[in-house]
Amino acid sequence: MIISGRHGLALVRVSAGVLFLASALDKTTSGWLTTGQPLVKSVQQNLDKSEGFYRSFLEGTVLPQAPVFTRLITIGEWVVGVSLLLGLLTRVGAFAGMWLLLNYMLMKGTLLHGYDNGQTYSDRLYFVASVAFLLVGAGRAWGLDGALRPWLERVPLVRWLAGIDHPFSGAAASADRAVPEPIHLAAAPRRRAPAKSERRAA
Fold first, then answer.
1. pLDDT digits over 47-63, tens only?
2. What percentage of the chain reaches a pLDDT higher than 70?
3. Residue 114 confidence class, pLDDT cut points 50, 70, 90
């Protein structure tokens, strides 16, 4: 079996889904759905490194409402993990994953800094992968978005969320329509050579 670029991206999508599910399971078993203390501890550990404009949001909004944010983060990671793993409404999972990763990087201070010291952060890699999932709809290959396409494509919004509307599909279809159908010319009938009897009569 030949693995195309779509299938390669689908493998990355499944891997990202597994990682999000592992993180969500760890948060669930660590009490993130019942208390805000884990998030408070994480924010306080990274507060000095967080981006300057984001620090006031952490101090004024996240810390006072930590129990709410811990539940939202945990549920969000479950949604992203299931969506990417199964390839179901992949663009929903990709967008939610991008939003979570963006906030993680802002809290850790790795979005705008840390590029000059050779450090590599997995959040950046997953963010770029989520952008790719959002753009190309990676659930069409080895995912439920592709398997359920006959039903999902009936609703325009759901069709887009499932990634069935490829951003370049419309252009490709227009290009196909712009190419005229080839004209097949019928071969001219071959002249029959006169028989010997006909030549004698002439």
1. 998 888 999 999 999 99
2. 62
3. low
Three-state SS for the chain is CCCCHHHHHHHHHHHHHHHHHHHHHHHHHCCCCCCCHHHHHHHHHHCCCCCHHHHHHHHHHHCCCHHHHHHHHHHHHHHHHHHHHHCCCHHHHHHHHHHHHHHHHHHHCCCCCCCCCCCCCHHHHHHHHHHHHHHHCCCCCCCHHHHCHHHHCCCHHHHHHCCCCCCCHHHHHHHHHHCCCCCCCCCCCCCCCCCHHHHHHC
Count of positions (residues) in the chain: 202
Q: Retrieve residue 156's tokens.
A: 């325009």
pLDDT in tens, 60-75: 999 999 999 999 999 9
Q: How would you class 80 by CB atoms within 10 Å of its CB: exposed for 0-12, middle for 13-18, buried for 19 or more?
A: buried
